[in-house]
Amino acid sequence: MKYPVLLDHSTIGITPVSNGIFSEAEEMFEQAFKRMEERGFKIVLNEDIWGQKKARAVSAEKRAAGLVQMMTDPNIDVIMPPWGGHLAVELLEYLDFDKLPTKWLTGYSDISTLLLAVTLKTGIATAHMANIVDLRGNHMDEVTARWLDVLSGEPGQQIIQTSSERYQLEWDHEHPTDIVFNLTEKTEWKAVDAKGHDLTEARFEGRVLGGCIDTMRHLIGTPYGDVAAFRDNHTEGEDILWYIDVSELDTVDLKRSLTQMKYAGWFESAAGVMFGRVGKPSVKEDYTYKNVYQDLAQELGKPVIYDVDFGHKPPQMAIINGAYGMIEMIEDKGQLTQWFK
């Protein structure tokens, strides 16, 4: 594995890989860029971020070219696409993965489609974490703020992140708090064992991989989703610690997608699976999300920890694709330890 390192006063490149910034959101992003400059970073913008047409910022070719330009620019240290969307998968065919340098790529939601593909193809670690627009507050909550520590970690370093006290139930962009998020609901991590029974304690470890299943599932069966090749080429054959963010999939669609992952061999040698809080829950008939997790745990014979701090209901930890990780839960709290090895 190859791990980038974020240094003080680094230059952040902002380029679209999925959605662009529509006019109603421009003020939010201007505030985010200013806040990062106040924190000592330099911001470089690809002007293609401004605007949105036909469910994307610009064409796949232009998005890919903008990404490659910033990835290969020695004066840019980290790439933070503005936010997710729908069609990041389009640009993968235009990337020469062998020429990508070791540089942080960050974000979540549809951005995770790109992040997972880059890590699987190259062995370069990528960071599933809050988007730059979510970092625009005067302050950051204790969980979100750890992104700086995580991205600054040196190869060989161990980094521990702990669960939040409260999380945000719904987005309210019109009334952000001083930390952006409205953290009103009590955080409670939960787990089931390999038989689907509730657990008060759970722990598993392995090489970390994952992302937003709504979009990353479309890597299955493509050259960009070869998990077996990643294990052979970039690891020492460790089990995989899967993390899965569910944005808008209903319970049946989620189960279909997890079954497809299983059929494709993605869960072979899985140590266990952790799920974030579901962004927009939609239960089909009486088949709940917990039922899905129980079914998956029984099918894989592995534990599942869910309602963990990542994904579309912040705050979220910075989770590193390719790192070696250990997830632990005791009662309703927990921690994620990651080693850059």
From TrEMBL:
MF terms (GO), sorted A to Z: carboxypeptidase activity
Keyword Cytoplasm tagged? no
Alphabetized UniProt keyword annotations: Carboxypeptidase, Hydrolase, Protease
Tell me the ranges covered by the LD-carboxypeptidase N-terminal domain, including all copies: 12-128
Q: By its UniProt entry, which InterPro entries does this protein fall under?
A: Carboxypeptidase_A_C_sf, Class_I_gatase-like, LdcA_N, Peptidase_S66_N, Peptidase_S66C, S66_fam
Q: Which residues form the LD-carboxypeptidase C-terminal domain?
A: 205-323
The UniProt entry, under Pfam families, shows: Peptidase_S66, Peptidase_S66C
Q: Which family does it belong to?
A: Belongs to the peptidase S66 family.
Q: What is this protein called?
A: LD-carboxypeptidase
Which species expresses this protein natively? Macrococcus bovicus
The beginning of the lineage is:
Bacteria, Bacillati, Bacillota, Bacilli, Bacillales
